[in-house]
Amino acid sequence: MLRTVKPRNARSKRAMDARQPKEVEDPRTCVFVKGTHPGELVTNAMKELMALKRPNAIAFNKKNDIHPFDASSDSQASLEFWSNKNDASLFVVGQSTKKRPNGLTFVRMFDGRVLDMIEVVVDKFISMTEFKTPKSTPGNKPLLHFASDLFETHPRFSHLKSMLISFFNGETIESICLPGIEHVISISLSPTPPTLTTTTSTDLPNATTTPEDLTSLPKVHIRSYTIKLKASGTRIPKVELTPMGPFFDFSLRRHTPPDPELLKQSLKRPKLKKQDVEKGLGKKRKNMEVDEMGNLRGRVHVAKQDLSRLQTRKMKGLKAHFDDEDAMEEDEGEEDEMSEEKKRRVS
User: Fold this and answer.
1) CA 64 to each of CA 2, 32, 33, 68: distance values in angstroms, whole numbers, following the listed order
2) Is the link from the previous residue into 55 a cis peptide, with omega within 30 of 0?
3) What are the DSSP calls for 126-181, one per residue?
4) Record's InterPro entries (predicted)?
5) Quick one: which of 114, 285, 133 has its CA closest to 224?
6) Which end of the chain is more exposed for a tag (fewer CB within 10 A), N or C?
7) What is the pLDDT of residue 177?
8) Best CA proximity match to 154, nearest among 105, 203, 216
9) Does the CA dihedral 108-114-118-123 come out positive or negative?
10) What is the pLDDT of residue 180?
11) Residue 189 and residue 232: Cα distance in Å, rounded?
């Protein structure tokens, strides 16, 4: 169990408060860890992944005796210690052994504990330096494109999709500016073998997949392109993709699914504020909706009105107690006055 650290001064207290959970989380920091025998291919692949992850990336230059899937070792305790020390929620561990060569392990943390892990094999790697093309700005948020139905239906690829979204996802933004979209990362799969059966993502097994099942899974292809917007004569610009690198070909290996209770805690959402609910977030409110431009619109239903109580101009003839008999008497009085005036004029 991790010890509780109390702040000694105001500066350390502000630093600890900055690491507390937030409604809108900061970009995930990833730590790249080398195993005892990483190998040249794995080392170069980790450098290219770190280039895509910058500036939210930390590299450990020294080799570490760490085996995330080995339950008998203290590897998970080391990951939890590094996570709290560096305020990191992602790890990429590179290890290459005779039994499992060219392995990359993606580890995701929650609340200082290991949430889930997935291991892939680097089958092919093309460096970014081999493409003599413009590169994207470090720290720019990429577009992610998943080009296969298996990412929605198969549990192993759904798990991989969730891990890659957590890895490449940057700062949370409220709006998109087209000139600010500089590169796209396309993630596709090899042709699906006919023997592969697709199941729903809710059927995620509690144990790791056996090596016999891994032979039927297609390879994962990760490609990075820069985006160039050109005039098309219409409102929608013409989009051109230029290979930027790096290119990866991965094969799935071992994995550890998340603990159900820990996963339930990680998916909890904070209560929305009143101003957020009025903007249309959260639970839908009756007769209120948000249009495509983000404007809140509401419908007001008015009951049937009683026009007899409507306030009008205060005239004597419109008063309620002014009945027909009074009107006739007033008319007769006016006629008598007019006749008297005529008699006076004649005389």
Assistant:
1) 21, 11, 7, 12
2) yes
3) E-GGG--S--PPTTPPPEEEEE-THHHH-HHHHHHHHHHHHHH--S--SS--GGG-
4) Brix (IPR007109), Rpf2 (IPR039770)
5) 133
6) N
7) 81
8) 203
9) positive
10) 82
11) 32
- Per-10-residue mean pLDDT of the chain, 347 residues long, equals 72 81 80 92 93 92 89 84 90 92 92 91 92 88 90 91 90 79 92 64 42 74 92 87 92 91 83 58 66 74 78 66 54 62 62
Rounded to two decimals, the pTM is: 0.71
How many helices (H) and strands (E) are present in the chain, helices listed first? 9, 12
Rounded to 5°, the CA angle 185-191-197 comes to 110
Torsion of CA 103, 200, 264, 170, to 10 degrees: 50
The pLDDT of residue 300: 82
Q: Do the strands 288-290 and 103-110 form a parallel or antiparallel pair, or are they unpaired?
A: unpaired
Distance CA 222, CA 124 (A): 10
Q: What pLDDT sits at residue 316?
A: 67
Task: Determine the residue type at 310.
Answer: L
